[in-house]
Amino acid sequence: xxxxIAAITIIVEDTSSAEPLNAILHDYGQYIxxxxxxxxxxxxxxxxxAVVEAPQDQISTLSGKIGRLPGVTAKTTYSNIITxxxx
Length: 87
Prior knowledge:
Elements: E1 2-12, H1 18-27, E2 32-40, E3 45-54, H2 56-67, E4 72-84
Antiparallel strand pairs: 1-3, 1-4, 2-3
């Protein structure tokens, strides 16, 4: 199995999506290396960066699920490093 490192940048404009967002991140917790968030109170948004190492399809699925939440935008940046893991 091949895995990649990626950073998913998430901007939350609708705070009612915070709970489902956290549930999704929890479901993919095995792939998350680390995450941090910055509340930008003056603009009413929260910015989160989640760094993951996972198979390409899992990263795409995670980012897609996040991006489909109301008032949430997600963009993914991929590393060019691809690692083969033994199954």
